[in-house]
Write a structure and sequence with these properties.
This protein is an alpha/beta fold. It contains 13 helices and 14 strands. Strands 10-9-8-7-11-6-12-14-13 form a nine-stranded mixed sheet, with helices on both faces. It has a five-stranded mixed sheet with strand order 2-1-3-4-5, sandwiched between helices. The chain is elongated.
Length: 389
């Protein structure tokens, strides 16, 4: 057999990538993985990692072979991530591949975790299996598919996606008494799908005090993300909807080390988990909070609501991706432009002083590695990715 990835291989890997995407929002902190088994040019089995703790894609594809009455011996398996060689919630996939007599494995991307990182392919080669890795478009797509998993594996931090909705005159909030929505209904429906695909949703305390949001995914059967509120002074009201819906998903409140002990006690008694974020600047506190969230197994953080919070994440250089809805409306306000501070009870002078970085400490300017636009209802959605993991 050829030691190179062929156009036929690439087509089967693209199918495996399609299958992998079906596990979105259901397998974290595990990666999204799909697998296809092909013999004599015919697909004899398919599978994907469908839920945390369930069969990995390779084993699911081999089960599908047996369900179809097919023998995978001598076949080629196409898989989007290198097969695991360690015992986790499931036994090692390399064992199942060797036992099935698979002759060749084509892999779209490597696994960057320390416990994997080439071990599986090495064991397969030692067992007489031909192993090839894809390059080009399929490899890039496989890496993009698992950016949260890859970043968390390499840094211990969650992958951060910043969502914004902006009017044509650069506003991100409507005037008091008006509808709080800038984007249209199709855009808001899409946001609920993004929430369901994320491990956690984050907002600032100003957003909570203004809107009393739920921050849940309004999708039947969806896995609900954890809710995270950045609230240095522990001002979150104990009567908020976030605390009233702890049966739907947990709530983590990020506070400063000197937050009022009485308020912290009340939040704990109400069921909130407290995260202490240390550091002298908002950027330092963002990094501290992300490290704590990452240690809890949160691999993806969907950042919504609050220009102050967005500014802090940008100053900390901790935004990996942005998804921005541009709505065809003019709000005609004089508030600060997008992602540049949010008064949240401060005077404009105080806000300006807080959000202006000291000389030499300005956040880095980044150009997107890739970007795309699409129409969502009446709104234009621009997606931009700034880091590669």
């Amino acid at each position: 057999m050829s030691s190179q990835v062929t156009p036929v291989d690439e087509a089967h890997l693209r199918r495996a990538l399609e299958l992998a995407g079906r596990g979105r929002g259901r397998v974290s902190p595990n990666p999204l993985v799909g697998a296809v088994v092909v013999r004599d040019g015919e697909v004899i089995g398919e599978g994907f990692h469908a839920e945390l703790g369930g069969l990995h894609a390779e084993r699911a594809a081999l089960v599908d072979c047996r369900t179809r009455g097919e023998d995978p011996a001598g076949a080629t398996m196409y898989v989007t991530l290198e097969p695991c060689a360690h015992q986790g919630r499931q036994p090692p996939c390399v064992e199942a591949i060797l036992e099935a007599g698979i002759a060749r494995v084509a892999i779209a991307s490597e696994d960057p975790t320390e416990k994997a990182s080439g071990r599986g392919p090495g064991i397969l080669r030692d067992g007489g299996v031909e192993v090839v890795f894809a390059a080009g478009a399929e490899a890039a797509a496989a890496r993009r598919l698992n950016q949260p998993f890859r970043k968390h594996s390499r840094t211990g931090l969650p992958y951060v996606t910043l969502k914004l909705a902006i009017s044509l005159d650069g506003q991100t909030a409507t005037a008091p008494g008006e509808s709080p929505w800038i984007s249209g209904e199709p855009a808001r429906a899409l946001v609920h799908h993004w929430r369901a695909e994320s491990d956690a949703i984050a907002v600032g305390i100003g957003t909570v005090l203004a809107d009393d949001p739920l921050l849940t995914a309004r999708i039947p059967t969806a896995r609900q993300p954890a809710r995270v509120v950045f609230d240095s002074d522990a001002r979150l009201p104990c009567g908020s909807q976030l605390l009233a819906t702890l049966d739907q998903s947990p709530l983590l409140v990020v506070v400063a080390p000197d937050a009022d002990p009485a308020r912290l006690g009340a939040l704990r008694d109400a069921g909130a988990e407290i995260v202490f974020a240390s550091g002298d600047t908002p950027a330092d506190r963002v990094k501290s909070a992300l490290a704590d969230l990452g240690s809890r197994g949160i691999t993806s953080l969907f950042l919504e609501g609050g220009r102050t919070l967005a500014s802090a994440f940008l100053a900390a250089d901790q935004v990996d991706e942005t998804r921005t809805f541009i709505a065809p409306v003019l709000l005609g306000q004089l508030s600060p432009p997008v992602a540049v501070g949010d008064p949240e009870g401060e005077s404009e002078n105080e806000n300006l002083a807080r959000r202006t970085p000291p000389r030499g400490q300005a956040p880095p300017r980044r150009s997107a590695l890739e970007s795309s636009t699409e129409q969502v209802g009446d709104d234009l959605l621009m997606t931009a990715r700034f880091k590669e993991w």
